[in-house]
Design a protein that fits this description.
Number of strands: 12
CATH architecture of the largest domain: 3-Layer(aba) Sandwich
Number of domains: 3
Strand order of the largest sheet: 1-2-3
Radius of gyration: 32 Å
Distance between the termini: 90 Å
Number of helices: 19
Oligomer: single chain
Largest sheet: 3 strands, parallel
Shape: elongated
Helix content: 40-55%
């Protein structure tokens, strides 16, 4: 017997930036779909909230998915489809449920219900169930929840979850103007798109019994349900766009690599089953099992993500690293003029920088001294390295030593010269090179000093040491 093809779906609403929680959901759906040759993940944009939806948000979702490696160039991908295109089918289904007695019209206002209830928190009381109302102004369509017994949701992550029908009011599925509510539209769309697995966030679990009742009322078998654990911050609070950095685009702009982000997001609630954490998608995807996802909350640890990213950066070839750094080196926001950027100089220093950055954006403060006419001075670095007496003496001595035309301008020779000069002042190399580094690069930390001096050249190094010495003398 041929197995039913796996069809998952990712159904975001385009109302803002792309949330990392949404990215995690998309990747879990993508992993399951890619495991079978006939597997598909459908991108369905739920765009019926016209007041909040914007085309640029939809475009942002598509770009973000593509950055993660999910897109139309893969045979396992379908879409984007738009929920608004199925509006007529939503209306037809609502009427079918009415004609079959599974839904009824209700003209009760919220105030009317509250007047009939001793406790208004109890919700709708079923007043219109047997009134036999036809469609009309002010009449919403309510689903007739079966009396007695629970709805049992078999969740692949959470196990058996029971929802007592007594706690589920006859819920509205279409407004008085005929427009469907999310709960109905979502089910109709899944039916039309032949979705077999619904993998989504924990916050949707409360909707599931209503949706399952609708599937059953339509005479259909519900999909496989799987509700992912909530993602929390350091305070173990649910990630919030008002409080936390949750936009995937923000991480992209900071220089996180997509492969590092994919790897890390896949581990939010799931593990491959061995001690490895750093793992490419090609190895991770076949191991993914939705039943292995933990139902406990998952901690989004940005420090760990950053460490992942550093590991991935160090694994890049030098050529790949140079290419990925290009937007930060040649874009409009660089602190140097385009004419002052030298690609060959960066190529020479790239292997040194690659081992030191955890984010691609960190490349700028690491190499800016090479392309600026003057280094960006860090005040704390200056105060630390240029202590009275020692700083001035070392800069003065280095300036004289480096001026020697007999000194070979190579990293090894410059290191030896600095070490000798420092020793004459009673300084070990670490203390001796600090004033030179700050005078030339503006900071106490950065790329290896002597390779940097070699790349800058004798003339520029001498000019910066001279400027630093002038400043030190002026401060006396």
């Amino acid at each position: 017997m041929t197995e039913t093809p796996i069809r998952t779906r990712f159904a975001p609403s385009p109302t803002g930036m792309f949330h990392v929680g949404g990215a995690r959901s998309a990747l879990f759906n993508w992993a399951l779909a890619q495991q079978r040759p006939d597997g598909r993940m459908v991108l369905r944009v739920e765009d019926t909230d016209a007041a909040r939806n914007r085309p640029e948000w939809t475009e942002g979702i598509i770009r973000a998915l593509a950055w993660l490696g999910i897109g139309a160039d893969d045979p396992h991908f379908e879409g984007p489809y738009f929920q608004s295109a199925y509006a007529e089918k939503h209306r037809e289904t609502a009427q079918d449920l009415f004609k079959n007695g599974r839904a009824y019209y209700c003209d009760c206002t919220r105030e009317m219900v509250q007047e009939r209830r001793d406790n208004p928190n109890l919700g709708y009381d079923g007043f219109c169930r047997d009134r036999g109302l036809e469609p009309g102004p002010g009449r919403a369509l309510r689903f007739r929840v079966p009396e007695g017994g629970p709805t049992v949701v078999d969740d692949r992550i959470r196990g058996r979850v029971e929802f007592d029908h007594a706690a589920i009011e006859d819920f509205v599925i279409a407004r008085a103007d005929g427009s469907p509510l999310f709960v109905l539209a979502n089910v109709v769309d899944d039916v039309e798109m032949r979705i077999t697995h619904v993998i989504r966030g924990e916050e949707h679990l409360s909707n599931t019994p209503k949706q399952q009742l609708l599937w059953e009322a339509l005479g259909l078998t519900p999909p496989v349900w799987a509700h992912l654990p909530v993602i929390v911050n350091e305070q173990r609070k649910k990630l919030s766009k008002r409080r936390d950095k949750v936009a995937l685009e923000s991480y992209q702009e900071e220089g996180y690599l997509p492969e590092a982000m994919v790897n890390y997001l896949m581990l939010l609630g799931w593990a491959p089953g061995d001690d490895r954490e750093i793992m490419p998608w090609s190895e991770m995807m076949p191991l993914f099992r939705i039943e292995d996802v933990n139902s406990s909350s998952a901690f989004f640890d940005e420090k760990k993500l950053r460490a992942f990213n550093g590991d991935y950066i160090r694994e890049l070839s030098v050529d790949d690293f140079i290419e990925r750094c290009s937007p930060w080196l040649t874009g409009e926001d660089t602190p140097w003029d385009a004419a002052d950027y030298d690609a060959e100089v960066f190529r020479a220093v790239a292997p040194l920088a690659q081992s030191r950055v955890a984010l691609l954006s960190e490349i700028v403060p690491n190499v800016d001294f090479l392309f600026l006419s003057e280094p960006v001075e860090d005040e704390k670095s200056w105060n630390k390295a240029m202590k009275p007496g020692v700083g001035k003496e070392m800069v003065e001595a280095a300036l004289a030593r480096f001026a020697d035309p007999e000194l070979s301008w190579t990293a090894d020779a410059l290191k030896a010269a600095t070490e000798e000069t420092g020793a004459a002042l009673g300084l070990k190399l670490g203390k001796a090179q600090a004033p030179v580094r700050v005078a030339v690069t503006g900071r106490t930390v950065g790329l290896p000093l002597f390779e940097s001096l070699e790349l800058l050249g004798r003339e520029r190094v001498q000019a910066r040491l001279t400027a630093a010495l002038d400043k030190l003398r002026a401060a006396e």
